[in-house]
Structures
1.
Amino acid sequence: MDTQDVSVRPEHLALITAILELPSGQRLPCWDDPDLWFSTEPFEQLAAMAGCRACPVRPQCYAAADAAGERFGIWGGQPFPAHTTPQLAP
């Protein structure tokens, strides 16, 4: 495959760059339990969203997911699609 045929969205490039610029040894919250970010359980989705709060690449993650039209999971602290915000029962 010719590399000139490959296009990368600017949002994805920004995310990759931000990850590569992390201090050595720093891990992202989603790396330790990635299944949590794709759970269908509201409590687990809320836990994933909370895990994103201190993530240093949160804005880039959200922008990349939005640009790609992600249809499932928690990206940049937000559920995708955006209208599926999990709610806990009272």
Note: Residues 10-20 form the longest helix (11 residues).
2.
Amino acid sequence: MARQNNDQGPPVDPFNQMMFFGPPTGPPPQQQSQDQQPNQTQDIKAMMSSFMDDNGNLDMNKLMDGADQVFKMVDKTKPMIKQLSPLLNMFKKQ
């Protein structure tokens, strides 16, 4: 059940009241039209540009360094994820 706050603003749902102590602040989110959404190929090109050399060729050293960083991050977070797994399983059961 939603209720009005004191300044007659938008209704405050119980989740926002409990978690954030009041209504959300700022303007409401707006849907983007298809024209405003970035093109997927442009996103891929922008991501791949960080793995290119000055001539526009794929730089394998940069690519392997990026993959190495990902694997190191996974190795560092693995113990934390193992410790959180019982908690996540508890929520999953409910």
Note: Residues 60-94 form one domain.
3.
Amino acid sequence: MKKRTYVSFGSVGAAALLFVSASSASANWSSHVDGARVGAVAAWDCPSGSICFYTSKFGLGKRCVWPGRQNESDWTGGDLKCSWASSNPTVRSIRVMGGAAQSVSWYPLKNYRGSRSCLLAGNPGIKHSFVAAQRVLSHTANSGGCQT
């Protein structure tokens, strides 16, 4: 059985976390890696229309940015690489900016494999910090919700 995690945010920003079983600052960039912007930034800094993953809670630490609606099957060797994912692919927070996607799914393994987790971006610019670090090596930006 795979465990899927869904995070949903209502209109007032309250979070609900469900576990479902299923069968199967812009400045301070430290580097640019094959098009993916990576680096330490101000808290929750994320370009308009983008999806940002951070190494620390509350949008802090190093960040990897993908243009909205762009899927990435391999954070370490795909079209846009995330430099810190090859040594420690853990994510502690995520931000989905307006126009980026209605939901974002992420996976602990390359090629969208492993237990899927999903963030439903109910409000533009939604921010979420995880209680436990999430291993992420691939993700999809979805135009719909977190359904399978």
Note: The domain at 2-142 is CATH 2.60.20.10 (Gamma-B Crystallin; domain 1).
